Automatic annotation (TrEMBL):
GO cellular component: cytoplasm
Single Gene Ontology MF annotation: phosphatase activity
Protein name, UniProt field: Broad specificity phosphatase PhoE
Coiled-coil ranges from the UniProt annotation: none
Organism name: Paeniglutamicibacter cryotolerans
InterPro entries in alphabetical order: His_Pase_superF_clade-1, His_PPase_superfam, PGM_Phosphatase
Amino acid sequence: MSTATVHLLRHGEVHNPDKVLYGRLPEFHLSELGREMADRAAEYFLGQRNNGARIVHLAASPLVRAQETAEPTASALGLEIVTDERILEAKNHFEGLSNVKSHLRKPEHWPYLLNPFRPSWGEPYRDQVERMMAAIRDHRDRALEIGGPGSEAVLVSHQLPIWVTRRAAEGKRLWHDPRNRECTLTSVTSLDFDGESLVAVRYAEPSIDLLANAANIPGA
């Protein structure tokens, strides 16, 4: 059976001075720090390739912050960016609002807070996992077509879809406390496959030393 790896790379910090939960809104670009994080991710994957990893395929969410995060890796590895809508951010009722906690006291939002396990305020966790895993399998197979057994793909996505996909891969419940997600900016969640079987989940933080100065809004 063919082994393969798919790396899920979260985007870098976004320029967001108003602290908006930006979700799928357009034109939220990387900040200067976010671009440094994207460069750091590219260095990480180039280092992996120099150590023998066959990283042969790159895809990204259509949202601008994901595309901008993918660009340095594309340049470093000589890869084209394939855009895939299946790996974009989750839908969220509170998208576009700043200081979301202050809005939770407003009655018009209460119907969206009834079921935190689904969740009722956005795209169901299970739906996110299904679309992410469909994309992961397709890009895994494309990497294998390009590079043969042992090939690897990088998918640039967003915190919540990556996190619930990891929880599903590890056999954990999908509902969770957003404050406890292990999916920092430009972190890499790696899924190792042996044929169709997912055999390991690994995690790395190429920008760990940059995180202290980064803005990181839960749900964004």
